[in-house]
Amino acid sequence: MASKTIFIGVIGAGGVGKAFLTQLASLEPTFPQISLALVSRSSKTLAVDNFSQKLSLSTWPRDLEATQTAAFTPSQVANFLSKAPGKSVVVDNTSNQDVADAYPLFLKKGVSVVTPNKKAFSGSWQLWSDIFGAAYSSSNPDGGLVYHESSVGAGLPVISTLKDLIDTGDKVTRIEGVFSGTMSFLFNSYAPLNGRGGAWSAEVLKAKNLGYTEPDPRDDLNGLDVARKLVILARLAGVEVESTSAFPVQSLIPEALNSVSSGDEFLQRLPEFDREMEGVRDKAEAQGKVVRFLGSIDVGSKAVKVGLELVEKDSAIAGLKGSDNIISFYTQRYGEQPLIVQGAG
Fold first, then answer.
1. How far apart are CA 83 and CA 50, in angstroms?
2. Considering 229, 283, 305, 313, which one is annotated as catalytic?
3. 293 close to 183: Cβ distance less than 8 angstroms
4. Is 229 a catalytic residue?
């Protein structure tokens, strides 16, 4: 194999992993130096016997099913990829904390990390420090690279935009916006600019049936997904946030429904609490505004918050459509007219 070959190991072969490998297959004719060396899921691992071979990007699902090799631990994957005769990359498509905890090990071994896994970057400050302490830098040229663009905003260029602003000498003063496609869809339906949506419980059920929420909608309504994204952006902007528990996060789960046994039971009982959300919508309408679920970071005061806000109807946030995200960067360079990143999140 040529020395410029890039050896790729993939952890997680579910929905996200399959989509990634499909994209990788489409790139193979353009980038023949890509070599798929490993695919691992929770129960088994498919790996090349030696690095002169590469796994088939067309038959890997069948080959993975057929293999009898047990799942590699994260450290085993790191050791395997570190022996490749060239640059190697681990693509973590999971939300697994154990895999996230192993990122410093991968990086120390010179294996670069590409991932949408928010847990690695929104967990403890110590893990964040360990990851970037082990990553490539001028003082650590043997470390692997870290790319986690899709940990905030899915396919939107949110992290790269923030990094570019900082790297080119701009000073970020505030970041705010709608960071959840689920919350965007819910409130665009519940409190549209024109007309009036249905009952809150009906809108949540509609969103679930259309595939906009997790199987248990409480995993979206607790606000933690947005909070994790805010932790990541705050840290990149220079605010040392310890965790999601370090700032106020408003949950939209009625307290009485926190402990119900299932998502189905939650949806069955949610109509009992429609009046609470109705009051918020009525208050917004009385002020000529709409209610939205926002996240914000004030860099100067180091204040981070997540929750419901009443916004002006002529604002970009109020005018969102469908499940779009919108992130506004207020900086010294851009003044009061923010740099906006908007699109499907």
1. 10
2. 229
3. yes
4. yes
Residues 6+ apart with CB under 8 A from 154: 116, 181, 325, 344, 345
DSSP 289-307: EEEEEEEEEETTTTEEEEE
pTM of the shown model: 0.93
Judge whether 69 and 44 are in contact, CB under 8 Å.
yes
Tokens of 6: 């890039």
Closest CA to 291 of 278, 275, 280: 280
Distance CA 24, CA 66 (A): 22
Give the span between the Cα atoms of 231 and 201, in whole angstroms: 29
For residues 311 and 323, is the Cβ–Cβ distance under 8 A? Answer: no
Residue 123, CA atoms < 13 Å, CB-side half-sphere? 18
Closest alpha carbon to 251 in 268, 233, 266, 235:
266
Q: Please write the tens of the pLDDT for every residue from 275-321.
A: 999 999 999 999 999 999 999 999 999 999 999 999 999 999 999 99
SS3 187: helix
Measured from the Cβ of residue 169, the count of other Cβ atoms closer than 10 Å reads 8
Tokens of 241: 């946030």
